[in-house]
Each structure stands twice: as structure tokens, then as C-alpha cells.
């Protein structure tokens, strides 16, 4: 237990298995990690890498029957965490080490008031009175920038937004002054402006209180902004460790290098991304040697022997690779030769929206009249041009998904006009509408839930054809095979079921299904958000190839600015049901002119920049039930001036096609972002 | 929405329910073949006597006028005179209804008081011996016919062991307590009548066990599966990660949430218990509503049938109201939304 006596958390050669029906899953194989006082340590990896298991193990949170430690040691503040009993663990959890999780929406008990949940934790660990605990809870909420803490104490979780709930959870985690705070993807479910606030909060509070942080994430840019040191995990092993700046600038391990290369941030827009071929190995059998060798471009015979975790250069920067320090780090992808994309966008409008509004009734009086309206779309003028990729960017609640539904004729607008190929959708009867809808197909975010698990793949892919009247199994199967090949899957696997495929493969199946009817427009609703970056790269590549070969038009909805910048020709930024900025991807995202777009892009963590992320003030989105007067962004805007109280129109900025819904667009200072 | 406005809203709703129920039963009772006037007058009555009887009962009036008269009386708590017993229906209801409710409540309390802890235990010790036992109990409960279980219990505890009474609400030597609520247990408690309290309690045991056993099985099962689900929730993990002791996590955090889906089911169970009581009452010679209604139906005793229907549906609405109130108390979000 003396390994790293000055460490708060010391994990040494830890191994852990999950006993399952099929055998033991080797979730952790010899993981070593240290967290020292006051430092912020990142733990990065893709799904299944074991990063969350490691984090949960630190405070022994995995249910006893679920996991079994098979070797190594684990100590926290000198306690032998593997030997300690449940009662002693209860005293450590929440007091010496506390933890926050990914989903703030579900991490608070829905039936207990916020104040009571915090007070309960404080009084569990400290002998103080109810009144004192309440006072401290309110002070903590204030410290976490929760406005009106006294009211929030009396609120139930459902009355707060996701960002506010995460603040509450952070307050709870800090309530007994822990020595270490473990964060498991705490911002992944949040919008980027809220993420920026929460990250800034964790950093500041941890620094101010001298709390060490173990921060688990899949997002290398977040690590860059937040962490002093970082560990990279792959297939239950530690593959690389080092100071953040070193590790990201000069990655030693081929996996880390490949991971960085697959990021769209670092690639030339519209160019194929360097995806990592293959998938993570199954952990049911023991892997001898390097677990990455099957996907590694540098693998040789020696890689079947377990590589040492060594440091070739700077102390503290080490990697588990025989060739650590010998393999050149990735060439900066920006310098890749730019070739012209095959599919050429025309200026001809495929879909045109004019003044489209959508309102949803909120509750009804006994006469059936809506009590209030949720204004999802508030006057959207937009055209989707044949052959282009139009990216839609915005935070939750901005109307992105409603826009997609309207475009696909699944939702009738309450006002305005939508034309497809010049035909007004409102003029069509049900049968004609059904025929027109074949031109629109959609790919959803989560292929895990968007594919029926009880259908074989060929049925799934050709279901649209079946619905359209094709009943011959032979013809359907033939088409399924063709589509499988198009999306880069093996045609002989059409008899399999969705669970037999990986997440990325499932998303390809979803894409194949969307293509079955030869659509003109494919709506991609966050198609890569549920995927790991290396897989995201594969899916984005496929999408770009298909667009070029089939002449498809994409409506690409995403909250991920980097992905949109990479794939989109034009971009529309949405805020509260309006398009606030529209133009080419380069115009809008590299030189934003609307204050909201600037806030949004400013909040995105950058891999390259050394600047710390700007944290916008903690404000919730204005209500889309009672719309604000004038400019919707006015209350949050740093450039507010006279004239903002009037409704703003989407107007061209200078002479280009770059349009901005802000009367001060020309007056804003130039945009300088590294 | 506040508790009060929910209550007010439901009470207004109750008026419509009673109106609907009375209209339907009224119409049905007049469409069913059978002439109450002739039945009351007897087989050998002359047509003239029957006609007189009909006039006396108001049966010669047009249907809507009969209904208006009837509803006016109902509003004053007068359900007419029972054809069969020749007593005011309301008196019969006052006498028999509390007995049934008392039995059903006792059965429900048994089912809930045993079922909830058993369900929680079962979920926590999933697949261990205690879970196996509780699952056996719940399957047995769900699949055992009440009359058979009743007879078995009587044979065992009354016939063989002789430690519990097998029929009635009180031992023969004991006078019923002064009527306040009509529940013997409550009334004897309120009047400090200890012998009556003791006797009424031990008379309740076997019928309540019999009637409640099915629901014990259902409640246990429901709570077990709800708990298993809730224990997977993120907020349970948060509570564990904050170092809250197991007991607090289970009962302070998980159970309350697990109860939310169970409340509706328990409410429905009470409705079931009222039906089920008919059978149990017969087995245990329990002087409740069940026997009374069955006999009234065979005798085409419409005033009694309608009186019972109105009272039963009112009880149902009030029951649903209390389920909703418990629901609101458990789930703050429903308080906002409904």
C-alpha cells in the first residue's frame, strides 16, 4: 500500500472481472493510476475501455455481486480499499471521496427536495444540526452559482434544468470537503455552453478548496482545457500517461495517435477522416500482449508480448508500447492535400421553408383550448439545396428536431409554407403526402434503440420497401445485400440481428435502411453523437461517400460544432426556434457574426488552443412558452444596445450570402479564435 | 394543483357519476322482465290489488317522473323500502356495508403490511433463499382460490386447533359495541369496550387472511419488480456514492419511488377486495353486503340493488380520489402537472 505515499488515490496493477453467463469479462487488466493532492487528472478512453469501471472502483461503487477483483491494489488516503468493509466504505464515500456522474437529469431523487438531499449527505458525515446543515447547503449552492439558492433548496429536481441539477450535484459532492472528486463524464449530457460553465466551476472550486479531481471523459478537448495530467485507457489497460500538453502534442502510443487523428477538429473539412479500422477486442478471453495490435499500423510479431509501461523521454510521460518514442506522432492533418469533393451542391432548392411556425399546445382547458403554447419554431425561412449538406446547430430546445419533423412532412406547421421540389406540401392529400414522404428518410442518434432488435438486418433495411408494397423476399434480400455493400458492411450478414453488430455498424444499418427507397433528402439527427470518435470518423466518411455517389441532400442536425464544420456545406444556427445565422460552414463557424453563435463557438473546448474555455454566465434558456420581446438573445447578449428591443430580421451581412439576425452584426469586433 | 382543488374537482365529478349510475340502473331495472308490483302483492293477488300496489309505488308514472322522484329521495339519503326485507334500504346498507368495508380494509392492511416489506426484501436479496420463499408465497397467493383457502383455514384453526373462531363478527355472548362508524373494531376501541375489541379482532383474522392472500401475492410481486427497477436508477447510485447507509438508500430513497407505480395497483386491489368479499363472507358467515346483494338480486329487489349500486360507486370514486391523493403525496411531479 505504500505505492505513491503522497498520492490521494493510488491504483496499482488492478485487475477486475465481471462474471457473466458467457464467462468472465476482463474489464480491467493491470491498471495503474495515481491522483496527487490538488491536481486534476484526466482519464480518457472510448466505450468499453474500462475508464468508468476504474472510477467506480476507486470508491468501490460496483455492486459486490457484479464485479470481482482479481489482482493488484487500490488505496485511497491510505485506506486499503479492497480490504475495507461496507460500513467503513460508507464513511469514506461522500466525505473523503465524492463522485458526480454523467446524467444530471436522473441523478437526483425525483421525490425529495433538493435541500433535503444535500442536508442528508452533510448530516450523514458530520455531527451538525439540521439548521447548520441547511445553512451550509444554501451557501454551497450559492458557491456553485445557483441563482436563488433558498428557493432551489425547496425545489424538486424536475423543476430545474440539467445544468442546474449538475450544479446541485457538484454542491453535494463538495459538501463535506472531500480530498478527491471523481467526475464520470459530468458534462457529456449537457449543452456546450452549459458544459463550459460546469467545467469552469469544477476547475475553480477544486482549485479553491485544494480538492484533487479524477475526471473521466471521452473528449480529448475537454481534457486539454481542464486536466494537468491525463491517462489513456484501451481495452481495460492503461496505454499512455503524461502531462496533458505533452501527451496531446506528442502522443507516444499508436492508439492515442490514431484517436487524435480521427478527430474532425484536426482534419480538413469535407475530407475523409482517418478512422481507426476494426473494433475493440472482446474481453472474454485473456489478451496476451498489446490489445491494440489488431488495429495498429505498426504491429509486429513482438507485439504479442506484453509491452512495458515505459517512459522514453520526459519523465512522467510513458506508454505501453514496444516502440514508444520511435513512432512519429501524427502529421498535422490540416496539411493534408485538399481535393475537391465529388458531389457538387447546386443552388437549386429542394426544400424551401417560408415563415414556418410550429406551436405545441401545453395543457388544455376543459373546453379543449390550449392553456399555453410552446413555440417550437418561430418564423423559419430556409432552403435546403439539392446535393448540399445543410448543418443545423443549436442547443437543446432550439427547435432543431421540430425543424426536421416539419421538413419531413411529419409535423404540420401552424403557419408558413413548405415546398418540396416546388410543390406546396399543404396542398397534398394524405395519399400524395405518403408518396412524397418517400423522398425523405431519417437516421436517428441512437442505433441501439432505433432498430427493432427482433428483426433480422435484411428485414430492417428493406422494411421501407415492404411498406411501399414490395413483398418478394428474394428481391428484398437482394436489395438489402446491395445496401449493405454500399454502407461498407458484409452482404452475407443480412441474416443477423442488430445485437450482433457494434454501435458503428448498427448506425450503418440505420443509414442503409434510410437509403432503401432512394430518397432525395436524408435527415441526419445527431447521427454520430452516441458513437466513439474513432467510429464517428468511419460513419462520417461513409456519409460523405454516399452523398458523392448517390447525389444525396443532407440535413445534418448536431450539437457538435466540429462535426458540422467538417461535413456541412452551409450551416444554420438556431436559437429559440429561429435561425439566427446562416451561411457557408466557413462563414458561420470560422467567422461568426451573431453574438449567440459566438457564445456557442466560444464555449466549445478546443484541442489546439491554450486559452481556457470562456464560461458564459449561468443563465437558463429563455422560456419558449412566453417568448421574449425583440431579439430573443437580448438578455444573454454581451453586445446589447438600443434597438435590440425590436424584433430582428435575418439579413445579409455585407454582400455575401452570410445572413445574421442581429442589427449590430456589422459593428461587432472581428472574430479572433485560435 | 393543490390537494384541495383535486378534492373539489373530484367531488363535482362524483355528482356526475352518481347521476350516470342511477340513470343506467334505473333504466335497466325497468327494462328487465318481472313486475315488482306483482311480486310484492304476491301470487294470488287480483289485478286490482296489483294496480293499487303499482300506484302506491309510483310505478304508474312516466319513467322520467319516477326517476326525478327517485333522485330527489336519494339526495336526502332515502333509497326507498326494500321489497324483500321491508326495511328502509338505507338502514340495511348502514348495517351491512360497514362489515364488508371493515373486512376489505383488514385484508388490504394485511396484504400491504406484509407485502411491501416482503417485496423489498425479495428485491434486495434477489435470487437468494429469502427471494425464493417470497416468490413462492406470491405465486401461491395469486393462484389459490379464496373459498378453498377459507375452508382450509377454518378446518385448521377452528376445527383442528380450535384457537380462532370460524364464523361471524363477534362471539355469541358479546353484544356489538355502540354504533359510531359501524366498524366493530373501531367502535369498540372508541367506547373502550375491550371484550368486544378482542372478540372482533380475532374474528377478523381468518376472513382477512383469506381475502387478503391473493393481494399479498400481487403486492409482493409488484413491489419486488418496482424495487429492482428503482435500485438501478442513477439517484440510487448517487445516494450510495454519497455514503448514505444501506437502510437510508433502500427505504429513504428507493422505496418511495417504487411505491409510486404500486399505489394504483393497491387502489384497484381494494375494489377487487369488495367483490371478493362476497365469497369470503359466505364461507365465514360474515354478515356483510355480499349476501345482502346476492339475495336482493335474486328477489329482483330494485330499491336495494340501486341503493347498493349508488353507495358502491360512491365508495369507488372516493377510493380513487384517495389513491390520487396518495399519488400526489408520493410524487411531487404529479402535483405540478395534474
UniProtKB/TrEMBL annotation, chain A:
GO molecular function: ATP binding
Pfam families registered for this protein in UniProt: ABC_tran, oligo_HPY
Domain of life where this protein originates: Bacteria
SUPFAM superfamilies: P-loop containing nucleoside triphosphate hydrolases
Membrane topology classification: Peripheral membrane protein
ATP-binding in keyword set: yes
Domain named ABC transporter: residues: 9-260, 351-601
Listed PANTHER family: D,D-DIPEPTIDE TRANSPORT ATP-BINDING PROTEIN DDPD-RELATED, OLIGOPEPTIDE TRANSPORT ATP-BINDING PROTEIN APPD
Name of this chain's protein: ABC transporter ATP-binding protein
UniProtKB/TrEMBL annotation, chain B:
UniProt-annotated location(s): Cell membrane
Keyword Protein transport: no
Transmembrane segments: 12-32, 103-125, 137-158, 200-219, 263-285, 305-330
InterPro entries: BPD_transp_1_N (IPR045621), MetI-like (IPR000515), MetI-like_sf (IPR035906)
CDD domains: TM_PBP2
Membrane topology (UniProt): Multi-pass membrane protein
Record's keyword annotation contains Transport: yes
Name of the molecule in the record: ABC transporter permease
Pfam families, per database record: BPD_transp_1, BPD_transp_1_N
Family named by the database record: Belongs to the binding-protein-dependent transport system permease family.
Database matches in PROSITE patterns: ABC_TM1 (PS50928)
Organism superkingdom: Bacteria
Main location: membrane
Organism: Ollibium composti
Alphabetic keyword roster: Cell membrane, Membrane, Transmembrane, Transmembrane helix, Transport
Amino acid at each position: 500500500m505504500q505505492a505513491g505515499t503522497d498520492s490521494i488515490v493510488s491504483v496499482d496493477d488492478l485487475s477486475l472481472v465481471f462474471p457473466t453467463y458467457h464467462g468472465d469479462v476482463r474489464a480491467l487488466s493491470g491498471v495503474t493510476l495515481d491522483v496527487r493532492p490538488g491536481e486534476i487528472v484526466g482519464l480518457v478512453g472510448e466505450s468499453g475501455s474500462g475508464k468508468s469501471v476504474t472510477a467506480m472502483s476507486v470508491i468501490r461503487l460496483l455492486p459486490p455481486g457484479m464485479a470481482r477483483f482479481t489482482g493488484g491494489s487500490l488505496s485511497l488516503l491510505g485506506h486499503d480499499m479492497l480490504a475495507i468493509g461496507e460500513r467503513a466504505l460508507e464513511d469514506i464515500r461522500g466525505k473523503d471521496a465524492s463522485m458526480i456522474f454523467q446524467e444530471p437529469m436522473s441523478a437526483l431523487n425525483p421525490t425529495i427536495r433538493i435541500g433535503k438531499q444535500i442536508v442528508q449527505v452533510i448530516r450523514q458525515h458530520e455531527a451538525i444540526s439540521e439548521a447548520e446543515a441547511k445553512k451550509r447547503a444554501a451557501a454551497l449552492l450559492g458557491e456553485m452559482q445557483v441563482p436563488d439558492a433558498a428557493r432551489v433548496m425547496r425545489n424538486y429536481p424536475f423543476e430545474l434544468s440539467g445544468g442546474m441539477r449538475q450544479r446541485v450535484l457538484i454542491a453535494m459532492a463538495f459538501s463535506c470537503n472531500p480530498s478527491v472528486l471523481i467526475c464520470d463524464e459530468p458534462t457529456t449530457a449537457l449543452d456546450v455552453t452549459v458544459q463550459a460553465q460546469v467545467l469552469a466551476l469544477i476547475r475553480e472550486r477544486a482549485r479553491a478548496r485544494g480538492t484533487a479531481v479524477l475526471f473521466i471523459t471521452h473528449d480529448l478537448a475537454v481534457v486539454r482545457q481542464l486536466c494537468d495530467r491525463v491517462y489513456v485507457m484501451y481495452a481495460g489497460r492503461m496505454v499512455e500517461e503524461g502531462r496533458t500538453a505533452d501527451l496531446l502534442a506528442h502522443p507516444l502510443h499508436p492508439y492515442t495517435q490514431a484517436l487524435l487523428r480521427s478527430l474532425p477538429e484536426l482534419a480538413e473539412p469535407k475530407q475523409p477522416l482517418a478512422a481507426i479500422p476494426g473494433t475493440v477486442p472482446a474481453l472474454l478471453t485473456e489478451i496476451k500482449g498489446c490489445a491494440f495490435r489488431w488495429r495498429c499500423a505498426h504491429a509486429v510479431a513482438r507485439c504479442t508480448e506484453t509491452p512495458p509501461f515505459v517512459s522514453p523521454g520526459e519523465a512522467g510521460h510513458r506508454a505501453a508500447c514496444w516502440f514508444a518514442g520511435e513512432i512519429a506522432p501524427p502529421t498535422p492533418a490540416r496539411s493534408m492535400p485538399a481535393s475537391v469533393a465529388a458531389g457538387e451542391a447546386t443552388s437549386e432548392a429542394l426544400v424551401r421553408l417560408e415563415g414556418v411556425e410550429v406551436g405545441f399546445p401545453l395543457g388544455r382547458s376543459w373546453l379543449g383550448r390550449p392553456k399555453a403554447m410552446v413555440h417550437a419554431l418561430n418564423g423559419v425561412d430556409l432552403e435546403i439545396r439539392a446535393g448540399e449538406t445543410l448543418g443545423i446547430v443549436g442547443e437543446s430546445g432550439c427547435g432543431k428536431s421540430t425543424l426536421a419533423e416539419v421538413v419531413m412532412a411529419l409535423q404540420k406547421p401552424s403557419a408558413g409554407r413548405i415546398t418540396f421540389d416546388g410543390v406546396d406540401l399543404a396542398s397534398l392529400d394524405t395519399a400524395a403526402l405518403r408518396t412524397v414522404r418517400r423522398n425523405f428518410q431519417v437516421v436517428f442518434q441512437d442505433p441501439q434503440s432505433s432498430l427493432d432488435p427482433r428483426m433480422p438486418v435484411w428485414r430492417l433495411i428493406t422494411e421501407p420497401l415492404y411498406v411501399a408494397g414490395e413483398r418478394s423476399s428474394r428481391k428484398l434480400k437482394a436489395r438489402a445485400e446491395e445496401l449493405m455493400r454500399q454502407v461498407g458492411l458484409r452482404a452475407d450478414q443480412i441474416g443477423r440481428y442488430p445485437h450482433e453488430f457494434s454501435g458503428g455498424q448498427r448506425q450503418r444499418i440505420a443509414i442503409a435502411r434510410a437509403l432503401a427507397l432512394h430518397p432525395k433528402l436524408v435527415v441526419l439527427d445527431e447521427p454520430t453523437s452516441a458513437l466513439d470518435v474513432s467510429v464517428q470518423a468511419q460513419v462520417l466518411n461513409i456519409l460523405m461517400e454516399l452523398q458523392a455517389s448517390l447525389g444525396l441532400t443532407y440535413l445534418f442536425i448536431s450539437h457538435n460544432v466540429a462535426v458540422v464544420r467538417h461535413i456541412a456545406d452551409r450551416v444554420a444556427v438556431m436559437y429559440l426556434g429561429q435561425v439566427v445565422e446562416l451561411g457557408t460552414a466557413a462563414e458561420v463557424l470560422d467567422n461568426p457574426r451573431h453574438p449567440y453563435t459566438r457564445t456557442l463557438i466560444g464555449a466549445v473546448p478546443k484541442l489546439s488552443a491554450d486559452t481556457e474555455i470562456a464560461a458564459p454566465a449561468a443563465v437558463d434558456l429563455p422560456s419558449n412558452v412566453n417568448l421574449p420581446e425583440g431579439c430573443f438573445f437580448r438578455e444573454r447578449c454581451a453586445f446589447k444596445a438600443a434597438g435590440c428591443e425590436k424584433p430582428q430580421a435575418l439579413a445579409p451581412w455585407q454582400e455575401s450570402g452570410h445572413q445574421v439576425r442581429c442589427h449590430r452584426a456589422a459593428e461587432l469586433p472581428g472574430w479572433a479564435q485560435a | 394543483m393543490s390537494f384541495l382543488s383535486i378534492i373539489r374537482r373530484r367531488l363535482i365529478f362524483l355528482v356526475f357519476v352518481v347521476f350516470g349510475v342511477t340513470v343506467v340502473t334505473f333504466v335497466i331495472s325497468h327494462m328487465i322482465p318481472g313486475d315488482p308490483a306483482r311480486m310484492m302483492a304476491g301470487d294470488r293477488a287480483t289485478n286490482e290489488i296489483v294496480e293499487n300496489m303499482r300506484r302506491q309505488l309510483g310505478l304508474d308514472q312516466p319513467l322520467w317522473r319516477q326517476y326525478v322522484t327517485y333522485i330527489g329521495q336519494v339526495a336526502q339519503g332515502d333509497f326507498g323500502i326494500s321489497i324483500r326485507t321491508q326495511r328502509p334500504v338505507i338502514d340495511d346498507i348502514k348495517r351491512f356495508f360497514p362489515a364488508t368495508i371493515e373486512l376489505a380494509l383488514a385484508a388490504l392492511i394485511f396484504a400491504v403490511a406484509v407485502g411491501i416489506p416482503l417485496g423489498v426484501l425479495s428485491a434486495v436479496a434477489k435470487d437468494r433463499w429469502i427471494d425464493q420463499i417470497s416468490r413462492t408465497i406470491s405465486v401461491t397467493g395469486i393462484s389459490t382460490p379464496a373459498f378453498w383457502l377459507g375452508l382450509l383455514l377454518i378446518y385448521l384453526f377452528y376445527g383442528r386447533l380450535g384457537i380462532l373462531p370460524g364464523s361471524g363478527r363477534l362471539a355469541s355472548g358479546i353484544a356489538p359495541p355502540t354504533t359510531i362508524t359501524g366498524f366493530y373494531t373501531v367502535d369498540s376501541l372508541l367506547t373502550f369496550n375491550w371484550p368486544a375489541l378482542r372478540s372482533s379482532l380475532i374474528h377478523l383474522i381468518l376472513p382477512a387472511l383469506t381475502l387478503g392472500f391473493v393481494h399479498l401475492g400481487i403486492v409482493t410481486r409488484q413491489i419486488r419488480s418496482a424495487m429492482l427497477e428503482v435500485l438501478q436508477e442513477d439517484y440510487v447510485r448517487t445516494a450510495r456514492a454519497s455514503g448514505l447507509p444501506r437502510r437510508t438508500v433502500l427505504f429513504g430513497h428507493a422505496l418511495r419511488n417504487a411505491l409510486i407505480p404500486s399505489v394504483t395497483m393497491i387502489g384497484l386491489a381494494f375494489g377487487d377486495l369488495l367483490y371478493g368479499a362476497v365469497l369470503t363472507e359466505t364461507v365465514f358467515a360474515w354478515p356483510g353486503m355480499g349476501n345482502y346483494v346476492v339475495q336482493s338480486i335474486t328477489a329482483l329487489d330494485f330499491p336495494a340493488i340501486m341503493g347498493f349500486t349508488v353507495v358502491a360507486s360512491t365508495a369507488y370514486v372516493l377510493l380513487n380520489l384517495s389513491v390520487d391523493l396518495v399519488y400526489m403525496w408520493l410524487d411531487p411531479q404529479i402535483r405540478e402537472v395534474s
